[in-house]
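yo, Adenylosuccinate lyase is done. seq:
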Amino acid sequence: MDDPSVFDSYRSPLTSRYASKEMSYNFSDNKKFTTWRKLWLYLAKAEKELGLNITDEQISEMENNITKIDYKIAAEEEKKRRHDVMAHVHTFGACCPRAAAIIHLGATSCYVGDNTDLIVLKDGLNILLPKLARCCERLSKFANEHKSLPTLGFTHFQLASTVNNSWQESMSVDI
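structure:
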């Protein structure tokens, strides 16, 4: 099996340069496919509550294998089926043989795909927003500390006149 840590981060040239570890993990294969598995588990629990013939043993088996993803089997299944979701349905089924028949039961690919996208985007914003707030706070503090310092403006990559608060006066006259 491949080194599992390869699947713990999103792979892109930009990731290694600019992304935090937590954001890189948020968009990783492991996050995506464990989220798919959690969604299938939630679906099975809901279907059991609605009266479908799903056993506690099947639910337990799914719970115990959420993070056990064999990417080699997944790659083989995807090559064979030419469908990422169905490849992972069968990969999950391989490590949950008793639950294989109920994984993805009655669902469409959009169930896992769209919901996972929403979860990943929400989690990404939860990572980003506190950092953005901190950045705004620091920028505001810096601006207040240096508000009396004249600053040169640029136009077309050339020095221009100083930038100050006179634009506010000009705008208020125009209004």
